[in-house]
Amino acid sequence: MRTSEEQLDLLIIGAGPAGLSAADAAAREGLNYLVVEKGLIADTIYHYPIGRTVFSTVNELELREGALKPCREKPTREELLSHYVQFVLQENLRINTEEEATRIERCQPEHGFLVQTTRAEYRAARVLVAVGGMAYPYRLNVLGEDLAKVHHQFTEPHPYVRKDALVVGGGNSAAEAALFLAEEGARTTLAIWRLDWDNRDPKKNAIKQWVRTPLEEQIGLDRLQIVLFTNVEEISEREVKIRKDDGGLLRLPNDVVFLLIGHRPNLSLLHQVGVETIKEGLSEVPVYDPETFETNVPGLYVAGHFTHARHIKPAIDVPRRIVPLIAQDLRAAV
Ligand SMILES: Cc1cc2nc3c(=O)[nH]c(=O)nc-3n(C[C@H](O)[C@H](O)[C@H](O)COP(=O)(O)OP(=O)(O)OC[C@H]3O[C@@H](n4cnc5c(N)ncnc54)[C@H](O)[C@@H]3O)c2cc1C
Question: What is the CATH number of the domain that holds 194?
């Protein structure tokens, strides 16, 4: 393990939109900063389905006004990814990819933090954790969930043409996956809880209208069936047993299953160093000052998807606001 002699002003953990925005703001403030990223630049976006059009508008996604120029109104995964990568290259942001932060320790209050990664150990006056909310997919915990044909992430429909595909989940990711599969010729079933199917309220995570409309078209064309279910009871090599919400048992022939029921963040870095978290519905969020995003551990900040600021726009906006405050604080401490 290499120990860096350098004393960083700010160590940023994660190079998603929040981490990139923080790096950009830190560079503008003249801070000595470093980003460590366990995967690739904008790794979450890299894992979006191939060719997917994002639902946000350009001004909500771009890191510099006018820099993201999609062919159509909204960018695809590829255009967005390229924008983030080009931004890092043009601004020469300091990012170590494929380096995971494994531990944050607080030194004496006035001496900041020691951060261990899979490659080195760094000293930093302040730490900003921007690890996103995608670390662990929720599981159904049913028999057969670990079979090779069961996936917790959807990437592309092509391998499943003319195959029996089941998608389980009530959010946009599940609805989109079912739509892509049906459109590309997989015999597709979307298993969804009645409450999720009946929900039309965009504020309560209803399936977006521009996904729902083509989805309903596919249902009308008999290319996609919806099953309102209470339980997936068992997944086996050739079929899936589903308990429908009318009580009946459905045995679906099946080649592939996508369980797309959401993700939760890995908060272990925060827990180790003593950051308080609270349960909120199914998820857990850190406790932080809503103005500064500083946690109960002085000098340790959070931003992005695992806070209350979930989508890309706030993930970019919050660091723009808080990094200048961190810089001000550091200057005042000298
Ligand atoms: C399929 C899909 C479609 C979506 N579409 C949209 C959309 O259209 N519009 C929108 O606004 N939002 C969308 N979202 C949500 C959006 O991706 C997130 O809001 C956004 O990525 C949040 O940015 P972030 O920087 O907080 O987190 P992330 O982008 O998740 O970045 C966190 C980064 O931290 C890294 N990391 C994690 N742990 C460590 C560690 N210990 N050490 C080092 N690095 C670490 C991760 O590898 C990751 O790169 C979508 C999400 C999915 C899954």
Answer: 3.50.50.60
Q: Is the CB of 211 under 6 A from ligand 1?
A: no
Domain boundary among 241, 259, 277: 259
CB of residue 262 inside a 6 A radius of ligand 1: no
Domain span at residue 87 reads 2-135+263-333
pTM exceeds 0.70 for this model: yes
Question: What domain count does the chain have?
Answer: 2
Using most ligand atoms within 8 A of CB, pick from 58, 104, 131, 316 the residue to mutate for ligand 1.
131
| Same domain? 169 vs 190 | yes
Instruction: Compute the distance between CA of residue 131 and CA of residue 101 in angstroms, rounded to an integer.
Output: 10
212-268 tens-digit pLDDT:
999 999 999 999 999 999 999 999 999 999 999 999 999 999 999 999 999 999 999
Specify the residue with its C-alpha closest to ligand 1, atom 12: 311
Nearest residue (CA) to ligand 1, atom 31: 16
